[in-house]
Write a structure and sequence with these properties.
The strands form four sheets. A six-stranded antiparallel beta barrel has the order 2-10-14-12-11-15. Strands 1, 16, 17, 18 and 21 form a five-stranded antiparallel beta sheet that branches. The protein is built from four helices and 21 strands. Helices cover 28% and strands 39% of the residues. The chain starts with a helix and ends in a 12-residue tail after the last strand. The N terminus and C terminus are likely disordered. Among the domains are: 96 residues, Efflux pump adaptor protein, beta barrel domain (Elongation Factor Tu (Ef-tu), domain 3); 56 residues, RNA polymerase II/Efflux pump adaptor protein, barrel-sandwich hybrid domain (OB fold (Dihydrolipoamide Acetyltransferase, E2P)); 76 residues, Helix Hairpins (Orthogonal Bundle). The chain has 351 residues and is of the alpha+beta class.
Length: 351
């Protein structure tokens, strides 16, 4: 008697399970009543390209300041102001000499002009030879030419004297000092470098984009990135340039993409590693809640409610985020999507 009771109980249980499963998939009113019905949402979503990159100074953000003269360095380091001074006593002496030469020649010009004026008066009366007037005219022209050259020489020395004060061309931080007080610098062949100045506010992001994705990237694309030092902070930027040629790295061709950083730069430093997301395009898409997507192996499907029945329909999914999943194929905007109760069907797991 007991074995018969056990067999009967098992039969009832199996029948109940089969009835429940069949009722959910194919039966009408009860299944649809238990499921939550939603309508696909038409939403604008963004396509993106993922890449890695690094923060680096922009062109011109690092300047090596040198001298155009030779002399002895005197240390007066001030950021954005005078950073070095060349001993200018020799230059000042040359300038004084050039100015004195100018004054001497100015007097000579006046003297020759006076002599020429007297000779011309005497020539009109026939008291001097005409050749004397001609000689004085040539002498005046020669003296005026020498005066013009002396003035040019003085201007050159004045210009050189201005280079005796080395001023920082950009605002920034002095990264290194390569010349010390008392050293002699020679600018005959290569301009010597005194200090290197880095402007930490002039930064850009350079991302390496795989050749399979570079076709989707264009100038003006918005960018979001994080750095290892601040993994929860998102910085923003915009694509400004794409390298015309690729670089082979570990057998893979990558293209450098230059990105202007639009977020504040106070926490960013050169050579920081970045995880980059480049938003390449926007498109209209049908989106359903993530828990509406079911999985059977590699197949993705949803339950569509029609006339009180829940019908299984295979779909092709696209972009997925925390708010929903894009459906590329399989359903329309007017379909009623059923989200089965928890445990009624196998929900999609992370793929």
């Amino acid at each position: 008697m007991k074995p018969r009771l056990i067999i009967a109980a098992v039969a009832v249980l199996v029948a109940g399970v089969l009835f429940w499963g069949w009722g959910f998939i194919a039966n009408g009113d009860d299944a649809s009543a238990d499921a939550r019905i939603v309508v696909p949402e038409r939403r604008t979503i963004s396509s993106s390209v993922l890449a890695t990159g690094a923060v680096r100074p922009r062109v011109g953000a690092e300047v090596r300041v040198g001298s155009q003269l030779s002399g002895i360095v005197g240390s007066q380091i001030e950021k954005g102001d005078i950073i070095a001074v060349i001993d200018s006593r020799t230059l000042q002496a040359r300038l004084n000499q050039a100015r004195a030469q100018v004054k001497v020649l100015e007097q000579e010009v006046k003297s020759v002009e006076a002599q020429l004026a007297r000779a011309e008066k005497l020539d009109t009366r026939g008291f001097v030879a005409r050749s004397q007037v001609e000689d004085l005219t040539l002498e005046l022209a020669e003296t005026e030419a020498r005066l013009e050259k002396a003035r040019s020489d003085a201007e050159v020395v004045e210009t050189d004297l201005q280079y005796a004060q080395i001023r920082a061309p950009i605002s920034g931080t002095i990264a290194s000092v390569t010349t010390q007080e008392g050293e002699t610098v020679a600018a005959s062949f290569n301009t010597p470098t005194f200090v290197t100045i880095v402007d930490h506010t002039a930064l850009e992001l350079v991302a390496l984009v795989d050749e399979t994705d570079i076709g989707n990237v264009a100038e003006g694309n918005p960018v979001v990135f994080t750095v290892e030092s601040y993994p929860t902070t998102e910085f923003e930027g915009v694509v400004t340039q794409i390298a015309p040629t690729g670089t082979l790295i570990s057998g893979v061709v990558n293209f450098e993409v230059m990105i202007a950083i639009t977020s504040p730069l106070d926490r960013l430093r050169p050579d920081m590693t970045a995880n980059v997301t480049i938003e390449t395009a926007e498109r209209e898409a049908l989106v359903v809640p993530n828990d509406a997507i079911q999985r059977d192996g590699f197949e993705r499907f949803v339950y569509v409610e029609q006339n009180g029945e829940l019908l299984k329909r295979t779909v092709t999914i696209g972009t997925r985020d925390g708010a929903g999943t894009e459906i590329k194929q399989g359903i329309g905007p007017d379909d009623r999507i059923a989200i089965p109760p928890a445990g009624a069907a196998q929900n999609e797991r992370n793929s």
